[in-house]
Amino acid sequence: MSHETNQPQDKPALNNPFLLGYSVRPTGEGNKSYWSKIAVAWAHKDGQGFNVQMDAMPVDGKLVLRTVPEDHDGTGEVIEPSPE
Asked: Is the pTM of this model over 0.70?
């Protein structure tokens, strides 16, 4: 007999990252910035924390964490206007 569990729609699947971590550097062109993906975070089963895997440390010590967009293509670096 198969035992299936259904995840609520508002909770991410545990094997998919919940957050992406970026080092953000200005391009020198207005408000555009280079966003280099350097980390991913998975939510704990109890929803009270995250496991974070970092591939690099940002030189300035700042790490920007963003939720994973549905259309995320898995690339590591993008140039876009800063959301701040």
From this structure: no
